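Researcher: Please generate the 3D structure of the following complex. Treat every line as part of one assembly.
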Amino acid sequence: MQGTEGVTPPFIIMLRSLCLALLCLSVPLLGPACAQPAPTPIEEILLQNSDLIEESSRRTIEPAIAALSESGLPEAADVMIMWRDKELWRRKSDGRFFRIEPTDDRDTYLMKSLVTGEEIGPIGRRDVDQIKPNSGIRGLIDGALVQFQLTDPNPSVRRASLDSLARDPSADQLPILRRAIKNEAEPGIKAQMARIERLLTVRFDEDIEARIEAIESFAGDLGVDVRATLNPLLTTVRKAIREDPDTENVAATLTPGTDAFSYDAAYDFLVSQDLAPKTINAAARDAAIVANIENGSVAGIPVATLDTRLARDAAYDKLTENGAVSPALTEAEREDLVDTFNFFDAYREDPQITEAVLGTIGAINTKVRLNEMADLSLDALSLASIYFLAAIGLAITFGVMGVINMAHGEFIMMGAYTAYVVQLFIPDRTLSIIVALPLAFLVTFAAGVILERLVIRWLYHRPLETLLATFGVSIALQQLAKNIFGTQARPLTAPDWLGGQLVFNDVVAISYIRIAIFVLAIVFFVLLLFVLNRTRLGLEVRAVRQNPRMASSMGIDRERVNMLTFGLGSGIAGIAGVAIGLFAKVTSELGQAYIVQSFMTVVVGGVGNVWGTLAGATLIGFLQKGIEWFNPSNTLAAQTYMIVFIIIFIQFRPRGIVALKGRAAEA
Amino acid sequence: MRTRSVIYQPHVIVVLSLLVVFTVAIVSFSEAAGGFLSTSLVKTLGMTLCLCLVAIAMDLVWGYTGILSLGHFAFFGLGGYMIGMWLMYARTEQIVIEAAAGAPLPPTPQEIQDAIGTQIFGVVGGSDIPAIWMFAGSLPIQLLLVVLVPGVLALIFGWLAFRSRVTGVYLSILTQALTLALSLYLFQNENGLRGNNGLSGLQIIPGAEDVPQSRISVYFFVASAVALGLGYVLSAWLVSGKFGSIIRGIRDDEARVRFLGYSVEHYKLFVFTLTAVIAGVAGALYYPQAGIINPAEMAPIASIYLAVWVAIGGRGRLYGAVIGAAFVSLLSTWFTGGRAPDINLGFYTIHWVDWWQVLLGLSFVVITVYAPKGIAGIFDVLSRPAKTSARPVKTAEKARAS
Amino acid sequence: MSTLLEVSAVSVSFDGFKAINDLSFDINEGELRAIIGPNGAGKTTFMDIITGKTRPDKGKVTWGETNISLLRKTEAQIARLGIGRKFQRPTVFEDQSVFDNLVMALKKDRDPVSALFYKRSTVDIDRVNALAAEINLSSQLQRKSGELSHGQKQWLEIGMLLAQDPRLLLVDEPAAGMTVAERRHTTDILREAATTRAVIVVEHDMDFVRQLDCRVTVLHEGSVLAEGSLDHVTNDPRVIEVYLGR
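Model: Done. Output below.
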């Protein structure tokens, strides 16, 4: 048979394989004359369907795949995978199937048994054909394979196949899945199977009752997959008919001539459905007019007068009368035509289905909205804790010393850069953060004390000038940071355990970094309350704030209190910088992004009070998120509205939410 | 008793004469007159005069009335936007009409509008002309808006703020918030003012395309000088009489003025609004010389720089504001323009482009702490070295402090 | 003589502390009255209420023949109605000349436009000079008021008060920090003023009060403890208790 060229007619192949099969079946009887084992049952099936496999057509291959998958043979799945992965080869001489392995010799392959993988012997490269299923067939094989994977003894294989099934569902998987559920023992997988079964039922089941039941079973389910399954059932198609749309599942009727659906839109729709003749648009009209210009006039109308729409329409009408161009429908005629139609959007699905879906989706959407609120509140809470951390230092210095530190933002930046530098030396992320937090505090504490000693001390009682002087410090520090670290953002990487997010459901989730910042804010809130209310320094600070002159006459060293207060406020800014650096870009402008919000927090909250700052930060955080909720596309607008709100808020509470009253306020 | 006119006050005479001499010199040596001064230099100097004008406004509101507004540069920008709208609209309209002249049919008004809309708002993906451009085709109305928009905004904001007795640092922060809100608003693409693209091509004056830029720069320089002169005289008049007495009283002891029967809020509102208008006019003269305006110009930091100029020059005196604005802004241009020579220290080379901000910031701190009178304080030392005039200010501060 | 100012049943508290407690008080036109009381008796708060700086929690404050309520008016409006106030510490505009200080206080239209277009008439200048003579500052008119001595500043402030031409003067510790001679002159100024208008003087110094020779109201813990001639009140056992008892 070697060297046989050309096409072998199918019937000869069939004959030949039959003979071979018989031959080999009888091999044991014939003794060692046949040097290889007889075909196993799976090979039998392949041989029975070898023509179809050879033909490799998507239209005719089904019986072959069905024969394999329904054979009930344990090795069927492996063979199908080999088939799909083009590892199935067929010997030309007798049409039997093998696996092939290349050898050192380019022209010889090593044959292996299909089932056992046992080596059978060498064969010439030209003596075997590779079975190459096309992509269509491979898809069918995959589909058929699902049942094997769904019943695979290995649970992880079952899970993986469920996942792939959920990603790419099809109607024919439904019976397979239903069968698999019955045999599934593991409750987790069983539940997941049941859920996907219901999703598939919603989409593919023939029985409307079953579908409705499945749809309604999802009421209150927040899964994204549920909404992705249900929403397409509500797609509509726009229709225009002359009769009453009684037989249709109408989602919404459209009235031409309303804002939402103008006559023009209605007419255009009719045109697109070939229900009305095309109109001539302005460009086509103008082109027709231009084409008919003769000696500076169109149909006797001078071109120079055609500088309004009406004049051009009139010229076109003249041309129509002359027969130079085809007439166009007038506006009134078009509207009359539109009025003869009923326009509506109709659901593609059966009314019973859409009714069930609408009910279920409504319930789900209500729940989704509530959960989105919860998610937004979490966001707002984390924003509030950031603002709290950023503003509390400012509030302390402002409250105790009446000093606004415009360089506060730069202290935040300094903290972030400190953490960055620490990370350069300590590669371990967790350790570097643990080192960076106190170090950032120390660095900015020192910077604060230096600033207080060199500048602010000289400017007490000139608060506006302090504001300006610290602004000078701010621009100098910012440029200095640019000169040292460059203008591009520096990475400050959070430890891995802060990487992910805490997921409550498909709607509500919060990243661990934000939780960490929230915790940090609470820690500092408690710590500051403790320091201010329970320590000697706190007592002195409060004394100085309430009555500076009295405090100094009672032997409190105001200079020292001021210095320490300023250092403390600045140090907390450094900590805030580390926290902010973990999720924002560390640049020289980092502080600028937070400084105005920090001011707002202090102003809204009321000065010199930890509770006030907490209230201010909460209000501003929630306000910002709330405005974004109403206008989600535009954070710039949200910020604008927020500031306007704050300006108005100050009208009613000029001294903030938590205001000092009486003599202390006037001091 | 001073009963003579404000014109005869020594500082007014000196400033006006210097301004006249300076203007004549620049005009006669300008490129347009065949001189050696380049057009860009004339523009820079003209823009500097506008900055001096807005600095005077800042000095009125801060140095004299004690309201540290961190929003006056926003009013300056608003003035620029208002005139910019006309410049851009009128020029685009001309271009569109010229382009349409070649078409076979005369354009309909709608076609012209559409073409203008596409030209101006194409960059932000629009073609409709927003409602706020309603009057952009009319120069007189836009000129009126140069005054009205900053004025009305200042009036509303000031009314709200002063009515609720927001003062001192609180007020400064509130004005800064206003500025931030405004610049964030302008940064949005949907606002109808081209978002962060701003308005451009403002140096081309519609109807005067044939006039070379060298001539236009001189015209604007002279206009800026006249505006500065008028602004100076107006401000000098404001601060010299009883009105000046009252606003300085408000600066030093607001409550006392109130108990004298003056409605402090009305005075503050008057000064705040008037200075906003002056700032708007200055901006309207500045931006045609700059050629472009965008929201970044109006960021809160610009207004703080304005305060820096006035502080460095010496607040509470009009000429101090002029000196500060001219000195610092020109120096900034020189340093950041890369023209200042680098200093090689051997181990490190100081590039002024990088270090100017640091120097400015630190010198600002030093001036605020050690020389609150600014550069203008030098004139005190020069004019009456014998008199111990520096003391009372100190005691005044102490009195306010306690 | 008719009642010029009537304060009835006024209370105000700060953070729970009752600074003024159900206080009633009235003064007639052209009357000179001294108010005394220990520290924290509510003297300053009382003045704050009259001048509109502090709003009472309850009670009424009425003014003049038509009994206008002062509670809804701003400090400036109350000042324009004719109530002038001198603070405990001398508060004059230190950066400005004595002359300018007095001109600012002269009774004229108080709106910004009038101030802008104000021109000094010879009448005004004469009035300022007369006032300056009254407060012993004729030679100091062109000096910056910050350069004046403490007593001179007190006089300047009283002069500014007189320039306002008020119907009621509230004077808080006018003699504090003055020499004996200066006090005597201050007494003269106040007594002179009281011939044409009502004057309320808050004072600690009993000698000074005695020199004023007028009705005395004693405040204690935010309400009126006693009222009458100085001798009458100093003999009142409750007053003695308050002043000496602790």
